[in-house]
Every structure is written in C-alpha cells, then in structure tokens.
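Quick one, tokens below. Sequence please?
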C-alpha cells in the first residue's frame, strides 16, 4: 500500500493539465514573441493562462508575471524592490520565512541593508503589534509568509498588510502554500506582491508567478528580450504556463468542497495522533493551512529519533511524509523555523510534516495513524522523554 502525504513538497499533475501540455507542445510550440502565426498561437496560450492564474487571486491579468517557480517569484519581489534603491534601506521579514525570502534578505544584509526579523509565538504567528513597532522611516518592504510550509501556521496577513500600507511601505507575501487551497483576493487583501507556484496546485514543476500590484515598479533580475512586461526576460515555457493555467482554474473551481474535505481529514489525523506519547503538534491548530499536519518527536536523543529517521521508517512502510520543509528535509541540522518558535536545538531536529491532497482518503489517514503509532512505539520504547 502506497500513501503519499507530502503534498506541500509537490503535487502530481492533474490529467487535464497533462493533456493540455501535450497538446500545446504538439500544436502551439511557437515562440510567443514571434510575430507570425506560430508565435501568435503560442502567445494566445500564454495570455489565456495568465487570465486563469490571475483569476485564482482575483488579480488583473496584466498584474501577473510568470516565473520559473515560487522561489524566483519571491526573489523577484525582494530583490526587484531592493535594487531600485541606490542606498541600503530597511527590510522587515518574519523569523519563519521560507528560504526563498530568508536568503535574499541575508544577501541584502551583506550589502548593508538593515533587516529586521519579526519574532513569532509558540504557534509560529507574528504579532501585528511587533510589526508596528519595527517599522521605520526607511522601511521600504515587509515580507511575511501567508502559510508556513513546515508547521502550517497562517499569518494575520490582512492586519500586517494594512499596517504596512498605512506606513507607506510595500508588503509582499509568499502564498505558495495557501493559493488554491484558501480564497485569496488581492483586490481586498492589502498586499503589493504575492508569489504563487504551479506544482503546489497539481500543475507542472518549473513555473510560478508573481502578482505585482498595478503601480508598483520592480528592477528585473533577468535582462534580455523584455518578456513578461520587461520584468522577467526569457522565452516563456509555453506548455508549462498552459498547465499552470489549467491547474489554477481547476483549483479555483474545486476549492470550496476540497478545502472543507482536507480540513476534515487533517483534523481526523490530529485527533488520531493526539494520544500518542512523545508526539506534540506544532503550529497553530486553528489558524492553519487546511491540508497540513505537523508534529515534534519529544525524544532525549534527537539524532536517534530525528524527523529524518522517522521519514525513512515511514517510507519503508510505503508512506511518504517529510521532515519539515522539503527544501531542508535532507539536512539533520535543527529547523530554524522550530527554533524561532522556541523549540530547543534537539527538539528542532525532530519535526515531521504530513500534508494531504486530492487523492488522500479517510482510509489513508487511518492507516497512516496506525503505522505511525507503531513506528513511534518501537522508536521511543527505550528512550526517556524530554520537554521541548
């Protein structure tokens, strides 16, 4: 029995997506920048997909810039704003950002920028009051993740964005994990820049998008032919973009029913695992991504029963989970996300994440809970428990 529970890492492309991509590669493979019929057909595909992706967050089509993925979208937002300034300014991010935001912030710090990392509580949430206190006259950008990929916590984006807007700075959010799973409306949400990724919503890997509020200006990371309104040069990956468009349209269509179903399955998993000694939920149980469950293994020896070890043991049982974010799950170093939430270095090596998707069933949840309990019973039987 094979059960995939790592949908936050990537999702299998939907059949409709693959069909569309195959058709585009066979019939509409032209360069969208070319003026002849072949180019026009490809350009039509790209613009149709732009409308579909924009509709997912209720954005105007011309505000959506296609990128090679969520990481590039985040980098374009952070560095695209920063490079417009000849002198270092002030950037605010949260202490629980994805590395696609954290690493650019580190680079800016090396270049002389002041970077403030907002603290989070034990559930991983930012207090809007901390943002209000951190803002300065030279704060030009605030970036706070929409839904944390490792522990599932949703941030108070509306409050944070409004505080930032009232101050006169720009606000960016990485919505890679939330888009397509929760309603997002950039017409009412006070955000200026918002990153999306195709392969998190059953589209192809290798394509993402950045919403850029009309009136906001960026410096491009890539210079060349001036594609994507001059903000992302390079011939567009037409088939991937087409697949992204179909995935976005289907995600929007299915969201009301699918989100409720995932919440019910997620809570079923939490309930079944609640009584297991040595397993503590992480993140906010209520303000949480609908498909996301995460835990910390409270062992005295983080190396012997690390999250990575448990991932391997579950894989032997045919169940795919991850140790924190997929971008870091191959490393045994403590999770900086759990550390920021107040977990000890030892405990921060012991996080696991189970993320659900459209193929997950109640039977999958029940079997996973049973197997996880057995694996933990064997792993923790001889180990004393320690507080996290």
């Amino acid at each position: 029995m094979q059960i995939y529970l790592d949908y936050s890492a990537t999702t299998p492309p939907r059949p409709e997506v693959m069909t569309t991509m195959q058709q585009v590669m066979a019939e509409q493979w032209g360069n969208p920048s070319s003026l002849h019929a072949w180019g026009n057909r490809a350009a039509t595909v790209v613009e149709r997909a732009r409308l579909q992706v924009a509709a997912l967050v209720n954005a105007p089509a011309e505000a959506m810039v296609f990128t090679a993925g969520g990481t590039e979208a985040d980098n374009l937002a952070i560095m695209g704003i920063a490079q417009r300034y000849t002198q270092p300014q002030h950037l605010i991010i949260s202490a629980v950002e994805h590395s696609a935001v954290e690493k650019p912030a580190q680079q800016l710090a090396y270049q002389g920028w002041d970077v403030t990392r907002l603290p989070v509580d034990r559930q991983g949430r930012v207090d809007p009051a901390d943002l209000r206190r951190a803002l300065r006259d030279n704060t030009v950008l605030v970036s706070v993740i929409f839904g944390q990929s490792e522990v599932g916590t949703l941030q108070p984006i509306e409050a944070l964005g409004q505080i930032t807007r009232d101050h006169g700075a720009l606000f960016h959010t990485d919505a890679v994990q939330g888009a397509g799973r929760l309603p997002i409306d950039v017409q009412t949400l006070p955000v200026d820049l918002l990153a999306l990724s195709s392969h998190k919503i059953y589209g192809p890997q290798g394509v993402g998008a950045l919403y850029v509020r009309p009136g906001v200006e960026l410096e491009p990371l890539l210079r060349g032919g001036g594609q994507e309104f001059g903000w992302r040069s390079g011939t567009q990956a037409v088939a991937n973009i087409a697949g992204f468009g179909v995935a976005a349209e289907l995600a929007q269509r299915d969201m009301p029913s699918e989100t409720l179903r995932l919440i019910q399955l997620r809570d079923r998993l939490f309930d079944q695992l609640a009584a297991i000694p040595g397993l503590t939920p992480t993140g906010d149980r209520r303000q949480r991504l609908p498909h996301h469950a995460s835990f910390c293994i409270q062992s005295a020896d983080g190396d012997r029963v690390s999250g990575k070890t448990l991932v391997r043991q579950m894989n032997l049982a045919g169940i795919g989970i991850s140790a924190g974010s997929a971008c870091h799950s191959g490393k045994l170093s403590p999770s900086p996300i759990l550390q920021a939430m107040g977990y000890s270095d030892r405990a921060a090596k012991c996080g696991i994440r189970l993320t659900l998707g459209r193929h997950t069933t109640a039977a999958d949840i029940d079997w996973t809970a049973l197997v996880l309990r057995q694996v933990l019973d064997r792993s923790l039987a001889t180990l004393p428990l320690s507080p996290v």
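The chain is about 40% helix and 15% strand. Residues 98 and 145 are 7 Å apart (CA to CA).
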